[in-house]
Amino acid sequence: MLQQSACAGAERPIRFAASRRRGVLAIAVLFVAGATSVDPRAGRVGWLGGPAAAPEPRPRGEPVMGVGLPVKPSIFNVRRGSSDRIIDGYDAARGDKIRLSGYGLTQFDPVRRGLKQVGKDALLALPGGQSLWISNVDIAALGEGNFQLELDRRGLAKTFDDEFKTFSWYAEGVDKAPIGSGTWRTNFGYAGSQELGSRSLGSNGEQQVYVDRGFRGTADKPLGLDPFRVSKGSLEIVADRASPETSSRMWNYQYTSGLITTERSFSQLYGVFEIRARMPKGRGLWPDFWLLPADHSWPPEIDVFEYLGNDTTILHTNAHSNAGGKHTDAPGVIQVPDLSAEFHDYAVDWQKDVIKWYFDGVEVARAPTPPDMHKQMYMLVNLAVGGNWPGSPDASTKFPAALAIDWVRAYRRDAPQK
Known about the structure:
The protein is mainly β and 418 residues long. It has helices spanning 6-33, 108-114, 244-248, and strands spanning 36-39, 44-47, 62-64, 66-67, 75-79, 85-87, 97-101, 115-118, 121-125, 131-134, 147-148, 156-162, 208-210, 228-231, 234-241, 255-257, 259-261, 271-278, 285-293, 301-306, 314-321, 328-329, 332-335, 344-350, 354-359, 362-368, 377-385, 401-413. It folds into two domains: 62-148, no CATH class; 156-413, Jelly Rolls, CATH 2.60.120.
């Protein structure tokens, strides 16, 4: 044991007293300097006598991968869930989009209010308590055009609805059938109802003739063809190979199919037009849901969807214009689930200044409304076979092939969107 001398013991009170004086002096300095303190254990700075400031949150969550990387504009799909999300690699200048689905967000204002800057990252507070981190992005770079939101159905008044419990045919070419009593015309009407010019679009290189129960072709009576059938509450437009005998009576075309239009029953200026459908599968199959002017001019034209049966996970949208005397378009190419596997919803919101396309209720594309697209338009749905774009059917294409339609609807907006 170390023994302590009396001298050593006398020194202890002197050192303690000096230490106490230094501590009092340090506290006084802290108050004079602004009463801040450092907690070395937490690495935080706070007010002396009060709680330390909470640290800024750090990015955490599941990564959201962009579709379209690395060179094309990318889409970052963010769906409602229980965990936070992180987007890395977002580039507003490249035209990348953030698609928000399942949150009920239809306007940009709630998105704007939920954004804040956290260091070098943007943080978006989402409904339901989720957070979305957008790495290395300044919120000043994020505007309405950077987000794709859900279809705003407020203020919509339904103006057209066919649920296809039956097929309401605008009959032409059938003896004793009342003309003009049905909804859907089944030829373009560009020429006589029995002429090829009303039954196919040669400029597209299409290989089908659009037929119906009244179609005669070059024969003197109807050929007994009907590409329309109602099955399980859906209308099916059926494309099939033509027999040699039938082909000889329809200008040697090799395929039959169907077209429906509201050219004689319904047209509208602006609004929402939508369809629920399941696509066919196979090379050379080319279904389309589109709008054309009621005054029979062309362009303009809006393609709510186009689809090629050999590429079942790609959705095409477009708007054609002739403003300024030159044909222009605004094509959209969207990656989606297999469209031949089940029914999906396709819609366009055509407004005075902008056109927005939607897939399953969420925006997937937009374009300015062309100057010549301010006239009433009617709806068309068809299943083309072959053509300059899709190419010809091959051995893998199974016939008969059907485009199944659950319903077609249209709405008018009682008030413009803000």
